[in-house]
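Ticket #4471: structure export looks truncated?
Reporter: QA, pipeline team
Priority: medium

Steps to reproduce: submit the single chain below to the structure queue and open the exported record.
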Amino acid sequence: MDGVWTVVEAKAKFSELTERVRRDGLFAASPLHGAKLKIRRSKSRTRPVSL
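Actual output as written to the record:
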């Protein structure tokens, strides 16, 4: 099953990526760099899904 990750593997890869970005500053060239965005997460546990 090459190319298929478990949830644990995906979380580990994402954590590795975000750490590398934080350490190496790979988002410095982003147009949103320094935008001081404020993002609020929904407290809802579900969202509507079309099937």
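Status: closed, not a bug. The export was complete when the record was re-opened. Leaving a note from the reviewer for reference: The two ends are 27 Å apart (CA to CA).
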